[in-house]
Amino acid sequence: xxxxxxxxxxxxxxxxxxxxxxxxxxxxxxxxxxxxxxxxxxxxxxxxxxxxxxxxxxxxxxxxxxxxxxxxxxxxxxxxxxxxxxxxxxxxxxxxxxxxxxxxxxxxxxxxxxxxxxxxxxxxxxxxxxxxxxxx
Length: 136
Fold this sequence. Notes:
The structure is a single chain. By secondary structure, the chain is mostly beta strands. The chain has one domain (about 5-135). It has no helices and eleven strands. A hairpin with a 4-residue loop joins β5 and β6. The radius of gyration is 15 Å and the shape is globular.
């Protein structure tokens, strides 16, 4: 969070595995959200920034240089009323909660050569699963 004014930077979601984490921040002013996300790693004196950017909201980034492995990630704002999201990376389907209006889904230990991109397939709204493509 270094480099951002404290009033414009708060953690909205995070996921970790071992000494690596993926974090989604809100770096916008009080009037609107501006999602900024990336990796961090645990160091002896705390968490240290890795790769970060304001987009895209789905992709892959390196977390283990020795084994050439990384994290595939998917984050975004959810439609109004959504409390869960369903996402895929190839055949692997995952569900996660929507918190503070956003979601984050991660897949750890993904090889660099794996070029699949995660995708949102459905939102759970008012007790029903609504296909993501129907809300675009």
